[in-house]
Amino acid sequence: MAAAEIDVKYVAHLARIALSPEEEQKLGAQLGNILGYIEKLNQADVAGVEPTAHAFPLVNVTRPDETRPSMSNEDALRNAPAKANGLFIVPKIVE
Amino acid sequence: MLNQLTISEFTAKLAKREISARETVQACLDQIGRVDSQVHAFISHDAADALAQADAADKLLANGGSADKPLLGVPIAVKDVLAVKDQPLNCGSKILGKFVSPYDATAIQKLKAAGAIIFGRLNMDEFAMGSSTENSAFGVTRNPWDTARIPGGSSGGSAAAVAADECIASLGTDTGGSIRQPAALCGVVGMKPSYGRISRYGLVAFASSLDQIGPFTKTVRDTATLLEAMSGIDPLDSTSMPQPVPHYASLLEGGVKGLKLGLPKEYMIGGLDPEVKQAVDVAVKHLEKLGAEIVEVSLPHTDYAVATYYIIATAEASANLARFDGVRYCARVNGKDPIEMYGLTRGAGFGPEVKRRVILGTYVLSSGYYDAYYLRAQKVRTLIRNDFLKAFEKVDAIVTPTTPTAAFKIGEKSDDPLQMYLSDIFTISCNLAGICGLSLPCGFTKSPKLPIGLQLLGKPFGEETILRIAHTYEQSTDWHKERPALK
User: Fold this and answer.
1) Where in chain B is the domain with CATH 3.90.1300.10?
2) What are the beta bridge partners of residue B143?
3) What is the pLDDT along chain B (487 residues), one digit of tens a residue?
4) How do the domains of chain A map onto residue ranges?
5) Domain A8-43 classification at class level
6) Is residue B154 among the annotated active site residues?
7) Which pLDDT tens digit goes with each residue over B475-484?
8) Would you call B13 a catalytic residue per the annotation?
């Protein structure tokens, strides 16, 4: 783990968050600080230790593959910023 | 005053027809009118709807239909991160705009089925990210015991509303301490159940492997009552666990004789305020006098907990908050294409702490860094969890301070995110390990008079043990009878 120089611009793009130059700079400093603190995890001896993704890992939690009632189209569109014909409207994706 | 009743007191009086649900809800509304301009626990509340629910409850009672409704008429306010049908859902953020929830969270459904009156949107740190309720897009909530101080977070509104008697109980959520810490700072009872105990369906996700819904109440008995009402496996949440739900409220008596309480030696450290240390020491001696055996235990990986949490929680948050993109909901900011729209919508809608955490989380998961950060943190999480499981072979519960200090001043830590994160040191491991924990009042600082919380940590699905210990302690002290002097 390199002590951190995060490429904030790049990561913000991955996260799809538009930042102002001031935000980028401030975040860079704060995140550098936090990552510096996180360095201490390097001291932990994790040889042979399994990672934990969930405290109580359940497996194969499924239900029968049957159609059931779900939210109505109207309810699903209720909070849509833009809608028409029962669909969400977004800016053009493909030219 | 009716808004000062506990759930137990209210249900008893209601059953005897000494009071009505309507009068009680009105008393809560009156209290909100009197104090919320100072406390700002509520983002919003619908008084007419609350009274209509109260009238319906009174009518049901009069018609004899209340037998299977143990919470009939109880006014419970809700953290703004839980979906309640036809009510606003904003998670303390601007980004959701005028979002109105089309459905009820499972925990809310269960409370409604038990007859409770669900009302209000309680203030919180945005998307549950914070420890002070200073990160809300809807203003700062103030500690009812000293309105220049924070109530804690992220469920600051939920804790403050109960402390200020603006409702009889409230709901919050806890991912790294966000119920227990504000409960401690506001002098009320707050519990995080074991992971999987209460369904997360309808809880806007922050960190899916850490989040749990839990109650804020004035007494331990009330917590037991609400825990029972909300617990249980849910087909709509595949992480909810199939363990049976005990009648928690009937398991509170029995005392603490013969119980072994663990004191983790790594927790009584420098940075712990001397008044907090003293209050906890006195409480532990009190539990010893009541018959518990105090055993020193060790949780050797304690020092890694905050770092581990801030990798795992932020990583999970970066995934969970990807949905706020302006497509199906949100205050959309238009762009020339969807990618630009996402960036502008999120840039405008997320507050600074959310941006900080989402970007950090994205980084630790990104190509080239995943193994060094996220995978390593997951392994350390195993070590932290094993510390607890090992300790629970020796003891029945673990007792600690809930927070290193009493409530700090508004603005004191908001410039230094890392300082804010470090204040979660005692609560954070509990979520990583998936175990249960609660905080209850154990004293006050001298001047100003600020609440101090005692934390009890229990085995996975060991809620009845920590509830019993908490109830025994509470009933032999007077802390739970104290109220802030709000004018």
Assistant:
1) 2-259
2) B146
3) 999 999 999 999 999 999 999 999 999 999 999 999 999 999 999 999 999 999 999 999 999 878 899 999 999 999 999 999 999 999 999 999 999 999 999 999 999 999 999 999 999 999 999 999 999 999 999 999 999 999 999 999 999 999 999 999 999 999 999 999 999 999 999 999 999 999 999 999 999 999 999 999 999 999 999 999 999 999 999 999 999 999 999 999 999 999 999 999 998 776 789 999 999 999 999 999 999 999 999 999 999 999 999 999 999 999 999 999 999 999 999 999 999 999 999 999 999 999 999 999 999 999 899 999 999 999 999 999 999 999 999 999 999 999 999 999 999 988 888 878 888 999 999 999 999 999 999 999 999 999 999 999 999 999 999 999 999 999 999 999 999 998 6
4) 8-43
5) mainly alpha
6) yes
7) 999 999 999 9
8) no
**Quick check: B418 and A33 CB within 8 A?**
yes
Residue B456, both tokens: 């009890």
Label residues B272-295 b or e (16+ Cβ within 10 Å = b).
beebbeebbeebbebbeeeebeee
What percentage of chain B reaches a pLDDT higher than 90?
94
Alpha-helix runs per DSSP H in B267-333: 274-289, 305-320
pTM of the entire predicted model: 0.96
Residue in the structure block whose two tokens are 């629970």: B392
Residue in the block written with tokens 């630790």: B364
Residues B366/B311, Cβ–Cβ less than 8 Å: no
Q: What count of CB pairs under 8 Å joins A to B?
A: 171
> Chain A closest CA to B304's CA: distance in Å?
6
Query: Is the confidence metric ipTM above 0.90 for this complex?
Result: yes
All residues at 6 or more sequence positions from B150 whose CB lies less than 8 Å from its CB, including other chains: B132, B133, B134, B140, B141, B142, B143, B156, B185, B407, B408, B409, B410
Nearest-CA distance from A25 to chain B in Å?
12
Q: Which of B86, B363, B416 to mutate to test the interface with A (most CBs of A within 10 A)?
A: B363
Query: Read out DSSP for A29-74?
Result: HHHHHHHHHHGGGGGS--TTPPP-SSSS--------S-------HH
Minimal C-alpha gap between B330 and chain A (Å): 7
Taking alpha carbons only, the member of B56, B28, B210 closest to residue B120 is B28
Residue in the block written with tokens 């006098």: B289
Q: What's B2-259's CATH class?
A: alpha beta
Orientation of helix B352-365 relative to helix B305-320, angle to 10°: 100
Is B429 annotated in the active site? no
Closest alpha carbon within chain B to A7: B363
Phi and psi (nearest 5°) for A41? -65, -20
Q: Does residue B367 have a cis bond before it (omega within 30 degrees)?
A: no
Sign of CA dihedral B140, B144, B149, B150: negative
Contact B207, B175 (CB under 8 A): yes
